[in-house]
Known about the structure:
CATH class of the largest domain: Alpha Beta
CATH topology of the largest domain: Rossmann fold
Strand content: 25-35%
Radius of gyration: 23 Å
CATH architecture of the largest domain: 3-Layer(aba) Sandwich
Order of helices and strands: EEEHEEHHHEHEHEEHEHEEHEH
Amino acid sequence: MEDDTSGDPADAPAVEIRDLVKRYGRTTAVDGLSLTCARREVTAILGPNGAGKTSTLEICEGFRRPDGGTVRVLGLEPHDRALRPRVGIMLQAGGVPPAARAGEWLRTVARFHSAPLDPGALLRLLGLTEHARTPYRRLSGGQQQRLSLAAAVIGRPELVFLDEPTAGLDPQARHACWDVITALRDAGVSVVLTTHQMDEAEKLSDRVVVIDHGRVVADGTPQSLTGAERQLRFRARPGLDLDELLAALPPGSAAKESPSGHYIIEGLVGPQLLATVTAWCATEGVAAEDLRIERRTLEDVFLELTGRELR
């Protein structure tokens, strides 16, 4: 890693990564990755399993050393001790002593900061008040996740790293975590998170970075990535002749079956196209179900970029 003694300019990005490389034996987990996370924004890093997300975060957090490239966090090298009071970290798992009681652990973490948030208020916000005296090992997975989130933000950090913050949470707990993340951004905190939940990234983030095989494959706001185009979707028997359907549609239309039995029509989606598709289905004896018009989602973009096969 290159040495940098340029200091900590106030206008430095929250995170700046240039040509990052991380290898594990013969496997290259991160392969020349470059990205910038702005201050006072939520940046979501998305990617399939094994894409290099967690390795990238662990390097930014100072837990791993890169094999190439440079990383700066709030203008500093990730291992700089000056970052400790300024950065909050929520690990994907662990980080809390198994015997520590939830409330006691949060109060202990608070004592390491000069102006912490109120531990009791955080416990209430995240639905943990009645579990304040429960040892960490006896908390459910979702409760452990929420306690880790509380510990990451209690010190009023300038930057928070959240690795899969809502994994395994029920809908109520998930929305409570969303409220915390939104409040952090509103308070001027920079948030960098990884998630497999596309709706979460679309709802929370100012910017989305999609990585695959250790490289950036897309970067932009959720709106710029999904675009303004609308789609017509419907379900029917698998294997419809899409060439025949396209021949009946206006020029410039596109049709695909993905997954089996689920059809997507793109183009100038309006009343004429809708009428054409329903008429074609009627002529072919096709029962079109769940027919609807909607905008392309972040999940559509993600699958187009990274493929649908399981890894």
